[in-house]
Amino acid sequence: VGVEVPTTPGRVYLRHEVSMTSARATGLICPSAWLEDGWQDEVVLQFDQRGRISQIGGDPTGLPRAPGPVVPGMSNAHSHAFQWAMAGLAERAVHADDSFWSWRQTMYQFVDALDPDQIEAVAAAAYVAMLEAGFTSVAEFHYLHHAPDGTPYDDPAELSLRIAAAGRMAGIGLTLLPVLYAHGGVGGQPAGPAQRRFLGDPDLVLRCRERVASAAPEVRLGAALHSLRAVTGEQIDALIAALPGDAPVHIHVAEQRAEVEACLQILGARPVAWLADRVELSPRWGLVHATHVDADEVRRAARSGAVAVLCPTTEANLGDGLFPAAAWLGEGGAFAIGTDSHVSVDPAEELRLLEVGQRLIRERRNVLRLGDDGHVGAGLWAAAGRGGASALGRESGRIAVGCLADLVVLDAEAPRLAGRSRAWAVDTWVMAGGAALVREVWVAGRQVVRDGVHVRRSEVGLAYRRAVAGLGR
Ligand SMILES: [Zn+2]
Q1: Cα dihedral sign for 223, 229, 231, 237?
Q2: Residue 59 alpha carbon to ligand 1 centre in Å
Q3: Which residues, in sequence order, are bridge partners of residue 249?
Q4: Could you give the residue numbers annotated as active site?
Q5: Angle in degrees, CA 52, 55, 58, rounded to 5
Q6: Backbone phi and psi for residue 409, each to the nearest 5 degrees, phi listed first
Q7: Residue 350 CA to ligand 1 centre (angstroms)
Q8: Which one of 157, 201, 265, 337 has the largest count of C-beta atoms within 10 Å of its C-beta?
Q9: How many CA within 13 A on the CB side of residue 130?
Q10: 3-state secondary structure of 55
Q11: Are 454 and 440 contacting, i.e. CB atoms less than 8 angstroms apart?
Q12: DSSP character for 331?
């Protein structure tokens, strides 16, 4: 209402003409900062030309001053950006037994309507919303490769490049994971027509990586296997062999009981166990929705250093089930959070639901205890920051020399934080606050959110409104 939406379609952003959001600062003065060994007052951070923290201390002359406590930024370890425009459109009962699988039918219909300009505009808007909530980077699990009829675009990496352009427009730290999606069911079953935009082989994934590496060198590159429904063991072997040894690799691994059953019947093992036998799990592996795992799988996967990528609001929305988080952490497992279908894009809300889900099934409080001092919200934030950085192949999640200056400044003037010491402020933010308490966000030394608003919110928002006009119902 009240916003004029241009109706002329056309290219939303020219891929190669989008500049960075803002100039990189050379440092930041923090009235207080959450460093690796705890909170300190009057901290000066110096940044190098690549946006890394080069020194803690030194000359503060000329540096901007943060308007509140400074904490490490958060990695969003799982995103399908286009689904941001679909959030809410699967919330009407259609079948007596609506489930993940009927949601997927809605998603297939939605995805058929999107052209490259729309995908780019939606992704930029999703990334702006993430940044405003305190995410500083995102792993885009990108399986949308082709035109609606399944034909490859002239440039097979067209949509990967659109995601890279959206990332640059928003100024988010992007790890792009082009997805290998070849089949329609466990054991190499043929894909259906609804999956035609996704299909490819390991060469397509490698091609996307090459094109993005040359066009957008700021993007970190990994790869993803859609799921054991969509790839065979031979394809996994071929792709892994062709990737650099440190490239992040993610997979949707055990989201639904039906896929666990299919794996047991066809492959003779549960998905995580089968994967652990097939590949060398390690910290570069992101096990997305490791929801349905047994005790043996928890032990093997957690001890490998692989990161459990949990998307609590999406998993709740889709009725997936509850990840055994306490058992995973008990084995020393690393975890990260993602927003997946983007029914929420708020890191505090993801962490809160992770913890309160455990409270509800255990009828207890303060279950996921990660810090030395018992602060649950702060412990979750710190651990998810470290796990997310590992899953994204990004040196972040901590305020330390050598890490990127991915930073969130909390709003010291917010009533929610009044009367709180700093450790309690983080608990309050995570367990009782959320995005409204985020005042500034910095990504690799560039400020992208000021006074709670992304520096390009209106521009990106206008393009988004234009892109989705006609998509809603
Ligand atoms: Zn997903």
Answers
A1: positive
A2: 45
A3: 223, 285
A4: 289, 340
A5: 135
A6: -110, 120
A7: 15
A8: 337
A9: 37
A10: strand
A11: no
A12: T
